[in-house]
Amino acid sequence: MNYTVVLPAAGSGKRMGAAYNKLFLKLNGKPILAHTLEVFQLDPWCEEIVLAINEQERQDIEKLITQYQLTKVTKLVQGGDERQHSVYAALQAASGAEIVLVHDAARPFILQETIHALVEKATASGGAIAAVKAKDTMKRVVDGQVQETIDRETLWSVQTPQAFQYELLMKAARQADEQGFLGTDEGMLAERAGIPVYVVESSYDNQKMTTPEDLVLGEGILRRREE
Ligand code: CTP
Ligand code: MG
User: Fold this and answer.
1) Is the CB of 10 under 6 A from ligand 1?
2) What's the gap in Å between 83 CA and the centre of ligand 1?
3) What is the pLDDT of residues 164-180, one digit of tens each?
4) Can you tell me the distance from the alpha carbon of 140 to that of 149, in angstroms, rounded to the nearest whole number?
5) pTM of the predicted model, to two decimals?
6) How far apart are the first and last CA of the chain?
7) Which residue from 79, 98, 102 is spatially nearest to 21, judged by alpha carbons?
8) Which residues have CB under 8 Å from 178's CB, separation 6+?
9) What is the CATH number of the domain that holds 19?
10) Domain count, the chain
11) Which domain holds residue 18?
């Protein structure tokens, strides 16, 4: 089995509070972006990597690709103002793919076994998204007042990768684009388009590096993996 992966990397990392795109921050001496790209570079199922980038970071990213020998990166496309726009631009550049994965460049700890399970499920069923079971009790709250406790057994925290048959996701993404609809993940666009989406149980390690505390957590994950 094989797939193309699309990685949105065109954010600015505001919540991280660094002076530059958080993807260039280092974990154990290696940029977050290089950690993420290496997972796909080393996965024999991954045929091609398409990156959505900030145009002004092109040279730095090309340098990183050379330094870490990321030979599967074939296209660097200009991202947009919103993550969804960056993904859409990269998806268009990935035409010809049968199965496409969308994965946040800011999630460097994705496991190959999760990727493979997603590809298998998307091939069989249309769409599959990485998710973990909710750990906390969840309540619906309006104006500070609890309305109800939601049955936790039915709740999942959603991550990326999100895998789809390429034509199905393109149809959903095109529809959202035409209607000016902004979703929070690809799964949401697919749901709106009536495409079946399944969850694949992922690892709690597959955290997005969003705020400075996440970097401490990330270094901890790398330390544990080295033991
Ligand atoms: N992303 C993107 N294009 C955007 C916004 C985000 O490609 N216009 C990418 C980011 O680079 C990241 C992923 O989408 O890899 C997930 O987004 P997020 O964690 O929110 O990153 P940022 O938007 O960079 O961070 P912040 O929201 O704190 O500014
Ligand atoms: Mg963001």
Assistant:
1) yes
2) 6
3) 999 999 999 999 999 99
4) 6
5) 0.97
6) 31
7) 79
8) none
9) 3.90.550.10
10) 1
11) 3-226
Structure tokens at 19: 């002076």
Provide CB contacts within 8 A for 63, sequence distance 6+: none
Residue of the nearest CA to atom 10 in ligand 1? 11
Say which ligand is closest to the CA of 21: 1
In angstroms, rounded to a whole number, what is the distance separating the alpha carbons of residues 150 and 148?
6
84, HSE (Cβ side, Cα atoms, 13 Å):
20
In contact, 4 and 122? CB cutoff 8 Å: no
Question: How crowded is residue 91: how many other Cβ atoms within 10 Å of its Cβ?
Answer: 24
- Residues 31/70, Cβ–Cβ less than 8 Å: no
**What is the predicted pLDDT for the residue at 55?**
98
Q: Residue 93: CB partners within 8 Å, gap ≥ 6?
A: 50, 75, 77
Helices (H), 72-185: 83-93, 112-125, 166-179
Pairing of strands 30-31, 26-27: antiparallel
pLDDT digits (tens, 9 = 90+) for 15-43: 999 999 999 999 999 999 999 999 999 99
Contact 171 CB / ligand 1 (< 6 Å) = no
The number of helices, as runs of H, and strands, as runs of E, in the chain is 7, 11
Q: Is the CB of 108 under 6 A from ligand 1?
A: no
